[in-house]
Each structure stands twice: as C-alpha cells, then as structure tokens.
Amino acid sequence: MTSATKPSTERVLVVVLDRTLARFFEVTAGGTSELTSLHSPAMRGGRFHSDRQGGPGWGEKEYHGRIREEERRHLEGVVEQLEHFDCNPGDALLVAGPKTAVAALTRSLPPALADRLMGTAHLNPTAVTPAAVERVVHTAQSAQRPATERGVLVAIREGLGRGRATNGPQETLRALAKRQVRMLLVPADAVPGTELIQQAIRDAHDQDAAVLTIHEPEVAKQIDVMAALLRWSSDTALGTAE
Asked: In degrees, to the nearest 5, what angle opens at C-alpha 176 toward C-alphas 170 and 178?
C-alpha cells in the first residue's frame, strides 16, 4: 500500500475496483459502510481472430480497441460516482484494487479528486469486506498522521502571531461563532465525553470546516483543549474567506 501526505480526516471515501466492477465505501469514526457499486459489463464475444475482414491482425486491433473503450467508459462512470458524493473540505479518497486498475483510475482523477487522494492499496473488489477497507484506511492514516500533525502544529504556531490561528477554547469558540474556522484541531484523548468539544466539532462540520483529531502525544500536549486555523485574520474586521 502507498500513502500520500494529505491531512488526516474524519471521513474517507474508498473505491475498490477492477476493469468491470467498482464498489464504494465510506469510513468515518463511527465505522465503515458500503455506499453503492458500479458494474460495467465486459464486451460480448470471444477473443480476436486475426483473419477477420480479410486482413491479418485486424481482429486483434479491434479487440484491444474495444477493451480500451470499455475501460475508459468504466473509469468515467467511477469518477462520476465519486463526484456525486457530497464532500466536505476534510474528506479524503483512497483507491484500491489490482495495480493496473488503481493506476488507471488515479491517472483519470480530475484535480478536485486527485487533491483528496490519501493513498492506494491492493484489494479484490469481488471479495472485499468493510472490515478490510477499514484496515487499509487506518494503515494509510497511521502512515501519514505524524508528519501531518507536526506540520499543522507549525501552521498553528505561525498563525498565532498573525491572527490566523487560535489555541485555547475561548478564542476557538469565538472564531467558530464568527464562522471563521478553516480547520479545527482537537486532541484525541479529549474528544470522548466532552460536550464542549463535541459541540465544537458539530459546529465545524456545519460550517464545512475540516476537523483534525490529534493523536501524536507530543503534538496533542501543545493544544490547549482545542485550536484552529482560520479562514481570515482575527485582526481583520471584515475578512474574506480563502
């Protein structure tokens, strides 16, 4: 499995595909569920016959041309389905399947989806289970998490001096009330059973802000209950969103 360096996320869309089948899953903190599937029928008939139409090799060229066209249509259908899902700013995408199918889809992703790609994995779409999907997502998140969290902490430190970040519940909640938050940060051990943080997370989601749960102990201990990166400077009376 490979993993790109993308921000950790609360929701991951996963597509597991081969040349004719694609299955779509959603992985969140609450678990993994299958959303839908797409089946593109393979071409009818047998393989090529080199003596068809009176020209040696003509049937072979037609056969491979039809295979490429079927693959193109299948990939277009997969991309259309991915674009159909409602995506929040913090959502990520993981592509899984045989190596050739994964490579073909990643090459076909439009920029908006390619930017969400967090990694790839090898899974069989005809036999995959939600548990297997959840495992590869957690592996990808674990691989990228330390560098991502340290990078966000640096952004918080730099932003504090420019009014572009908060660190502490009072200023963070004030920024949420102004719909100013671009990314909310909460330590993982502070989330369960904390109504204040749960409400902040709900408010962030309602405002299409990303939510990053901090797992690295050295990073988490530098977050005062909650922190945030802001869409515009808190020193600007009439800021404009990024």
From this structure: 110
CA distance 64 to 52: 14
Reported as a single tens digit per residue, the pLDDT across 159-198 is 998 899 999 999 999 999 999 999 999 998 877 668 899 9
- Beta partners for 15? 24, 95
DSSP 156-182: HHHHHTTTSEEESHHHHHHHHHTT-EE
Amino acid at 17: L
Residue given tokens 């938050």 in the structure block: 181
- Residue 231's nearest CA partner among 185, 186, 178, 187 is 178
Residue 207 pLDDT exceeds 80: yes
Q: Which two tokens stand for residue 71?
A: 């693959």
Strand partners, 117: 93
Taking the model in full, what pTM does it have? 0.57
